[in-house]
Amino acid sequence: MPEHYLQADNANLCYEVEGTGPFIVIVPGGNGGSRLFRRFRDLLVEHFTVVLYDRRGYFRSNLTGPQDYSKRLETDVEDLRIIMANVTQEKFILFGISSSGALLMTYLNKYPETLLKLFVHEPMLYIDTFEGKDELQKFHLDTYNTYQTEGRNVAMEEFGNKYFNELDYYILVRKQKDDIVNNWDYWFQHEWKEYPFAKVDWKAVKTHREKTVLLYGIDSTGYNIREPGKAIAEYLNVEYLQFAGGHIGFYFESKKFFVNFIELCKKLSLLPEQQN
User: Fold this and answer.
1) pLDDT digits 0-9 by tens, 55-102
2) CA 213 – CA 233 distance, rounded (Å)
3) Quick one: which of 63, 46, 64, 45 has its CA closest to 54?
4) Domains, the chain
């Protein structure tokens, strides 16, 4: 797949474009990379023009100068904007998961006119009224301290045990042990404490509720990763829709997840009903 590069503010952003049909961009979460979404992308391309990209600082999107990490979230939002402005002037669908939740909601508030629909799968983003938010923020701080004192592997175990079912834990924690390709260190350093508790204008999000779709994986039922999205859905008074698999159902159950997604897109008139 051809790689495209776009110079942004002190970063060289890498993205891929494939397929035909309405534009959809997939925003990666924790490790910032697009690799995990390629199975899903390869199914979507029969219906959509799919944009995959690596967020700055991850994989192929290299940093080229100093970063203002006090504005990390705002920079992530602007990176997404300039990539899509370079790809199309049409409205597009936004799909993201997990730690990209703050990025997705902030983008929605800032650039709603660019979006057809926003799909948010199991966001790790805590609304202000979330019960136990203070304790969870302390957990994230304690795990960050573990990262600093005992290293990434131990911190990842704490993170995985807190949030995931066994299958998601296997891919996202156990298989990542000592990995040097997935930049989990960068995530711990700049997003783990910040993004789940980012300041989001939830009243503004509510004005865009008709554009917002919250999803969770059936296999995440009973696990903590399901709960933040449930609270957001309740606040917005929208349905929390069940899909195949767990936190990364688009990877483990890609075909079933794809069928769920296509059926939902048809229901939402994003695709024609008669399309196979």
Assistant:
1) 999 999 999 999 999 999 999 999 999 999 999 999 999 999 999 999
2) 8
3) 63
4) 4-126+198-267 (3.40.50.1820)
